[in-house]
């Protein structure tokens, strides 16, 4: 018996939607799961080289945690897990969130838990601490969420735009990006920041991408602090200004994402790549289907 678990990546914050707005993208973590004699994780992608290959793998640790909650005393049956991913690690594209979702799906599959989407989302958000990456990876599309011990989310359809990821060669750990954020804000600053975030959400709901781009520039929650860790941020944002609706820092960074039209990508991406050849440029789209869990046909197992 063999199964496929496929989890899309995500971008989060979308400017001022700090820890609350996320969008699933068409980069994926894939797990091919086959029963075995001992737990073994086999990396099949360059970006996964060096990951733990036994029960110290994050996916197993999450699956084991879920199993102990729902079926205490019942061990996860050993499996060989082939892992493929085209999601760069520590670049702000939700790689850790995909591992969390994959672990939950793995436990659900192997222990026949039949968890609902709400249950999976609650587990993932409890682990992650906020829903902005795990929710879109699980559910697909654009998800706006709130977490205070309980999870409240709503999905927003997004169509007609492209998301171009500009990925530098260096990593930025989330803990380092969070360390530069202020511990508190004044009441006046909080009102201003929440106003920007509120208009941003309305702009997403109505597909007003120009307005969203303007609000991204006015964010007060995280980008003014984190972009200091991204030496090229202002230069790239200025360079792309005329060809995009807006540019934002994806998650904690250092990846930047430009929102633009498909037509503009076709016309300009070759020039962008040539001008800034030190970066990896990816033309991405919204993944609306979320996480998939499939039983593989016999001919695909070997």
TrEMBL record:
* Name of the gene: thrB
Question: Where does it mainly reside?
Answer: cytoplasm
Cite the GHMP kinase C-terminal domain residue spans from the record: 201-277
Compartmental location: Cytoplasm
The EC number(s) given in the record are 2.7.1.39
Q: What is the lineage of its organism?
A: Bacteria, Bacillati, Bacillota, Bacilli, Bacillales
Name of this chain's protein: Homoserine kinase
Sequence similarity: Belongs to the GHMP kinase family. Homoserine kinase subfamily.
Pathway in which the depicted protein is active: Amino-acid biosynthesis; L-threonine biosynthesis; L-threonine from L-aspartate: step 4/5
């Amino acid at each position: 018996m063999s199964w496929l678990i496929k989890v899309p990546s995500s971008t989060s914050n979308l400017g001022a939607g700090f820890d609350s707005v996320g969008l699933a993208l068409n980069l994926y973590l894939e797990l091919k799961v086959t029963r075995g004699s001992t737990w073994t994780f086999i990396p099949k992608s360059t970006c996964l080289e060096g990951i733990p290959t036994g029960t110290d793998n994050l996916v197993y640790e999450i699956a084991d945690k879920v199993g102990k909650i729902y079926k205490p005393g019942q061990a996860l049956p050993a499996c060989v897990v082939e892992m493929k991913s085209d999601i760069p690690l520590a670049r702000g594209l939700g790689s850790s969130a995909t591992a969390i979702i994959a672990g939950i799906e793995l436990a659900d599959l192997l222990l026949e838990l039949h968890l609902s989407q709400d249950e999976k989302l609650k587990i993932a958000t409890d682990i992650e601490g906020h829903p902005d990456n795990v929710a879109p990876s699980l559910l697909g599309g654009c998800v706006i969420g709130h977490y205070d011990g309980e999870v409240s989310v709503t999905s927003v359809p997004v169509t007609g735009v492209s998301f171009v990821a500009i990925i530098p060669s260096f990593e930025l750990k989330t803990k380092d990006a969070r360390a530069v954020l202020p511990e508190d804000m004044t009441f006046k600053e909080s009102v201003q920041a929440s106003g920007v975030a509120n208009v941003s959400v309305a702009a997403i709901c109505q597909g007003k991408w120009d307005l969203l781009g303007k609000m991204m520039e006015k964010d007060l929650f995280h980008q003014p602090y984190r972009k200091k860790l991204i030496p090229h941020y202002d230069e790239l944002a200025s360079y792309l200004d005329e060809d995009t609706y807006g540019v934002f820092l994806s998650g904690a960074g250092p990846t930047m994402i430009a929102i633009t039209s498909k037509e503009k990508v076709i016309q300009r991406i070759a020039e962008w790549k040539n001008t800034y050849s030190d970066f990896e440029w990816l033309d991405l789209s919204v993944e609306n289907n979320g996480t998939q869990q499939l039983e593989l046909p016999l001919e695909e197992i070997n």
